[in-house]
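Write out the 3D structure for:
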Amino acid sequence: MGKNKQGSNEKKSNGNKGSASTTQAEQSENKGKGGLKAATAINVRHILCEKHSKASEALEKIQGGQRFDKVAQECSEDKAKAGGSLGWMTRGSMVGAFQEAAFALPPSTVDKPIISSLVKTNFGYHIIMVEGRR
């Protein structure tokens, strides 16, 4: 019986790992519904590039393991060049597509960021990460 219990525990832990990645995908699709608590404000960083090619290059650097703040300093084309920090932003203070993507992200750190895919707005292409929610 002990072996059966261990086997079922292993399946449960593997199921949790699978559902965690599914939950992140679902959160993006459901625009924040899911495992994240509702937030009225987020501490957000972004990288803004006018051209898709430059934004894609920045995205590849981050996915390759570079720190978000360093890539923001190198690549971002807006006033938030200090590591891409926009500070605490409230719901309704951001443009639609940016806000939807930002509120769907869980908090992470600049050295291991959980980032959005490229988000197109009238300002250009954004890569977004969230450092805190409240």
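Strands lie at 41-49, 85-90, 119-121, 124-133.
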